[in-house]
Amino acid sequence: MFIPSGAGALSKTSGVQLVAQTRKYGLGMIAVTQAPKGIDNKVVSNCTTQFLGKQNSPADQQSMKSMIASTGGSADDVGKLGAGEFYFKTDKSGKPFKLKTPICLSFQPPNPPTPEEVIARARKSAAAI
After folding, report:
1. Beta-carbon neighbour count of residue 25 at 10 Å?
2. What's the number of domains the chain is made of?
3. Closest CA relative to residue 40, chosen from 65, 19, 67
4. What would the pLDDT profile of 17-74 be if each residue is shown by its tens digit?
5. Which residues are bridge partners to 4 per DSSP?
């Protein structure tokens, strides 16, 4: 929503410039999206390292397959990737390859906690203080 592929966001111009400048000076930025076509292509072209995860919609699957194919790889399973599975590509990696990463340093359940679980956790934390 900050650097969309289409027009409309007030932050787009400065966002694209920020990404270009951070790369120029050797710094990094992270852009995350569920829709690869949703990020301005000037931003994507400045991203030298990409982790491409599971895509659900046929249009996004095709977009990701095209991105991977453009660098010599193939990815017919983009709709079936599991948690922590990505296609990884960088300027120096050659064609993209699949890798599996640890999920997270902390447990992340598949669904947010219920209000009752939030209250129980808060009470437990308060009791520990």
Report:
1. 6
2. 2
3. 19
4. 888 888 788 887 777 777 777 778 788 777 888 888 888 889 889 988 988 888 888 8
5. 39
Q: What is the CA radius of gyration of the chain?
A: 19
Same domain, 27 and 89: no
- Do 99 and 90 meet the contact criterion of CB atoms below 8 Å apart? no
Phi first, then psi: give them for residue 39, nearest 5 degrees. Answer: -100, 140
Residues 20 and 41 in one domain: yes
**Amino acid letter, residue 8:** G
The domain of 7 spans: 1-47
pLDDT in tens, 86-122: 998 887 888 889 999 876 666 667 788 899 999 998 9
Question: Which parts of the chain fold into alpha helices (H)?
Answer: 12-24, 41-46, 58-69, 115-128
